[in-house]
TrEMBL record:
<dbReference type="GO" id="GO:0000287">
    <property type="term" value="F:magnesium ion binding"/>
</dbReference>
<dbReference type="InterPro" id="IPR029065">
    <property type="entry name" value="Enolase_C-like"/>
</dbReference>
<feature type="active site" description="Proton acceptor; specific for (S)-substrate epimerization">
    <location>
        <position position="267"/>
    </location>
</feature>
<keyword id="KW-0460">Magnesium</keyword>
<feature type="binding site">
    <location>
        <position position="295"/>
    </location>
    <ligand>
        <name>substrate</name>
    </ligand>
</feature>
<feature type="binding site">
    <location>
        <position position="24"/>
    </location>
    <ligand>
        <name>substrate</name>
    </ligand>
</feature>
<dbReference type="Pfam" id="PF02746">
    <property type="entry name" value="MR_MLE_N"/>
</dbReference>
<feature type="binding site">
    <location>
        <position position="243"/>
    </location>
    <ligand>
        <name>Mg(2+)</name>
    </ligand>
</feature>
<dbReference type="Pfam" id="PF13378">
    <property type="entry name" value="MR_MLE_C"/>
</dbReference>
<feature type="active site" description="Proton acceptor; specific for (R)-substrate epimerization">
    <location>
        <position position="162"/>
    </location>
</feature>
<feature type="binding site">
    <location>
        <position position="320"/>
    </location>
    <ligand>
        <name>substrate</name>
    </ligand>
</feature>
<dbReference type="InterPro" id="IPR034603">
    <property type="entry name" value="Dipeptide_epimerase"/>
</dbReference>
<dbReference type="InterPro" id="IPR013341">
    <property type="entry name" value="Mandelate_racemase_N_dom"/>
</dbReference>
<feature type="binding site">
    <location>
        <position position="190"/>
    </location>
    <ligand>
        <name>Mg(2+)</name>
    </ligand>
</feature>
<feature type="binding site">
    <location>
        <position position="322"/>
    </location>
    <ligand>
        <name>substrate</name>
    </ligand>
</feature>
<dbReference type="InterPro" id="IPR018110">
    <property type="entry name" value="Mandel_Rmase/mucon_lact_enz_CS"/>
</dbReference>
<dbReference type="GO" id="GO:0016855">
    <property type="term" value="F:racemase and epimerase activity, acting on amino acids and derivatives"/>
</dbReference>
Length: 366
């Protein structure tokens, strides 16, 4: 059974609430969906989210990579030889992790559909319910407290508070959120590279001294500053989670070697897909490094793949899979759904995607 076509779809969908971090503010999800079709008409889907400020990936760049390199590479090849196809796309181009991830996920989705099993079964698991945190966008203390109360009322028990925009006020923000939700909710912080090492240590020590019961702190310093990340980790008690500092296995090896972080956030669009993400999870487990699987701002396709990975392999902390929850509506039909703080995987082949609406597909050169 061969791959007959590779198509791309440019999607844009609004968020119900602006998403604000130390790096960016967005009100939409902008993403490229890759569709791989076999010679019997079955389709597998993957996606490459556009995140200029984090990965540098753009829709036009990912589309060019798929149309000029990755699509022609897999077209006409055996759709069932999944490991070989995924290995080929990783070797085909330098960088372009988001484009690679989209093709990798689509290949996995298609393989699961051809077998008639959910993606989680293909990955070696059976679970269908995956807990997630929810993000509180960066803002002032009053607004964050109000949002935190609302998210707790929505049923979320793990809140990811975006900080790093103003180190001097971050302690007050955390204090306001803790006061708003009480002791029964876990709070984790994500500075999105917004602090210097000295600012990070000062803020984190202030949080520790205040007894605000924070679970962990994600990416406190710029991604390139592994010495600074290690310096912070060595001087605070709270666990430090590396996100933008780790894309692939070589990055994680360096973090482990320097003892720069206690946990790693594995994201498919950073790692290049499910195959390399599984390697990261296994490498972290072998070295006693904690794990979270995260998501960019993406649709049910990317989040469904990430949630399937978590359901099959597990993580040491609640994962960060709320991205599709932010959508006011989606042009993607089918796939995951949310029940409060839980991602529910569909009981359908592959990712359970039924259709991608209101798009004009373009076919790769294959």
């Amino acid at each position: 059974m061969t791959i007959a076509a590779v198509r791309t779809h440019r999607l844009s969908a609004p968020l119900h609430t602006p998403f604000v971090t130390a790096l960016r503010r967005t009100t939409t999800v902008e993403t490229l969906v890759v569709e791989i079709v076999d010679d019997e008409g079955r389709s597998g889907f993957g996606e490459a989210p556009q995140v200029w400020q984090v990965t540098g990936a753009s829709i036009d760049g990912s589309r060019a990579c798929v149309h000029e390199m990755l699509g022609p590479l897999v077209a006409g090849r055996d759709a069932d030889d999944l490991n070989a196809r995924c290995a080929e796309i990783q070797r085909a181009v330098a960088g372009n992790e988001a484009a690679k991830a989209a093709v990798d996920i689509a290949l996995h989705d298609l393989a699961a559909r051809r077998l008639g099993v959910p993606l989680v079964r293909l990955l070696g698991g059976t679970g269908r319910r995956v807990p997630t945190d929810v993000t509180l966008s960066a803002g002032d203390a009053v607004d964050l407290a109000a949002t935190a109360r609302q998210r707790r009322a929505d049923g979320f028990t793990v809140l990811k508070l975006k900080v790093g925009t103003d180190a001097a006020g971050d302690l007050d923000r955390v204090r306001a959120v803790r006061s708003a939700v009480g002791p029964g909710v876990r709070i984790r912080l994500d500075a999105n590279q917004g602090w210097t090492p000295r600012e990070a240590v000062r803020v984190i020590r202030g949080i520790e001294d205040a007894g605000l019961d924070v679970e962990l702190v994600e990416q406190p310093v710029p991604h390139w500053d592994l010495d600074g990340l290690a310096w912070v980790s060595d001087r605070v008690d709270l666990p430090i989670l590396a996100d933008e500092s780790v894309y692939g296995p070589r990055d994680l090896v360096e973090v482990i070697r320097r003892r720069a972080a206690d946990l790693v956030n594995v994201k498919l669009a950073k790692a290049g897909g499910l195959r390399p993400a599984r390697t990261l999870l296994e490498l972290a487990a072998a070295h006693g490094v904690g794990t979270v699987v995260g998501s960019m701002m993406e649709s049910q396709i990317g989040v469904g793949a990430a949630a399937s990975l978590v359901a099959a392999h597990g993580t040491t902390a609640v994962s960060d899979l709320d991205a599709a929850w932010w959508l006011a509506w989606s042009p993607v039909r089918g796939g995951i759904r949310y029940e409060g703080p839980t991602v529910v995987l569909p009981d359908a082949p592959g990712l359970g995607i039924e259709a991608v609406d209101d798009v004009k597909p373009q076919q790769a050169g294959c």
